[in-house]
Write a structure and sequence with these properties.
Order of helices and strands: HHHHHHHHHH
Radius of gyration: 18 Å
Mean pLDDT: 89
Distance between the termini: 35 Å
Largest sheet: none
Number of helices: 10
Shape: globular
Low-confidence stretches: none
Length: about 250
C-alpha cells in the first residue's frame, strides 16, 4: 500500500512542481521553445525568389538549434522544448504528470511568442513561411503516420542518450538529438513540413490564424512519443537504479 501510494505521488509530482526552483525550469522551457521557433522558423523564410530555403538548410538549422539549446538548458529543465518529448518521458516514467503539463503550457507560450517576434522581423510578403502543411497529394492519415514515425525515432534517441544507466551515451545527448532532428527533417519536410513538435506548429498557426490540419501535428507526434516512451520503458531501459532522464550530461 505504501509503495503504491509513493508511486502515485511520484507520478502526479505535486511536491516537485511546488518548489521555487520549478519556476526557473518553466522559464527555461518557455525560453528554449521561443528560441527554437525564432531561429528554426527563420530558416524557412524566402528572402529572394532565386534562393529559396532548401530542405538541407532547414534540417540543419532546426537540428543545430536544438543541440545548442540542449547544452545550455539541459541541466536546468531537461530542455524538452517539445510537448511530444514531455509526453514521451511521462509515459516512460521519467517525468511527472504535473511537470509535463506545466512544461507543455510553457512550451506553447514560448512558441507563440517566438512566432510573434519573427513575424515582426520578416518581409510582409512572406508571412506564411513557417506554417507546417501537408505536401501535395499527402493524405491526413499519411501525415499522421509520418509525424508519428519521425517523433517515434526522436523519442527513442532522447530516451537512449538520457538514460542514466547507460554510460556509453554520456555526453552525446545534444549532438545525437540534434542529428536525429536533422535527418528526420530531411525525410519529412516534403511530406508534412516535419514538425515533430506540436508547439512549433501551434505558434505560427496562432499568430497567422491558420488552423487547417493543426490536429494532425498534435495527434501524430503524441502518438509517436507515446509509443516510443512505452517501448523504451518495457524493452530497452537498463534495469538499475531509477533516475530521471534529462539532458543533464
Amino acid at each position: 500500500m505504501g509503495k503504491g501510494w509513493r508511486g502515485a505521488k511520484d507520478f502526479v509530482g505535486l511536491e516537485e512542481v511546488t518548489r521555487i526552483e520549478f519556476l526557473v525550469m518553466l522559464f527555461a522551457e518557455a525560453l528554449g521553445t521561443f528560441l527554437l521557433v525564432l531561429f528554426g522558423c527563420s530558416s524557412c523564410v524566402t528572402w529572394t525568389a532565386d534562393h529559396p530555403p532548401t530542405v538541407v538548410h532547414i534540417a540543419f538549422t532546426f537540428g543545430l538549434a536544438v543541440a545548442s539549446l540542449a547544452h545550455v538548458l539541459g541541466p536546468v529543465s531537461g530542455c524538452h522544448v517539445n510537448p511530444a518529448v514531455s509526453v514521451g518521458l511521462l509515459v516512460s516514467g521519467n517525468c511527472s504528470f504535473l511537470k509535463a503539463l506545466c512544461y507543455i503550457v510553457c512550451q506553447c507560450c514560448g512558441a507563440i511568442a517566438g512566432s510573434a517576434v519573427l513575424q515582426v522581423l520578416i518581409p510582409k510578403t512572406d508571412r506564411d513561411f513557417c506554417i507546417t502543411s501537408l505536401g501535395t497529394s499527402v493524405t491526413e492519415s499519411q501525415g499522421i503516420f509520418m509525424e508519428a514515425i519521425v517523433t517515434f525515432l526522436l523519442l527513442l534517441v532522447v530516451h537512449a542518450v538520457t538514460d542514466p544507466k547507460r554510460t556509453d551515451t554520456k555526453g552525446w545527448a545534444p549532438l545525437a538529438i540534434g542529428l536525429t532532428i536533422t535527418v528526420a527533417h530531411m525525410v519529412a519536410v516534403p511530406v508534412t513540413g516535419s514538425s515533430m513538435n506540436p508547439a512549433r506548429t501551434l505558434g505560427p498557426a496562432m499568430i497567422l490564424n491558420r488552423w487547417s490540419n493543426l490536429w494532425i501535428y498534435w495527434v501524430g507526434p503524441l502518438l509517436g512519443a507515446t509509443a516510443a516512451g512505452g517501448l523504451y520503458k518495457i524493452a530497452f531501459r537498463r534495469k538499475k537504479e531509477d533516475d530521471e532522464a534529462s539532458y543533464d550530461f
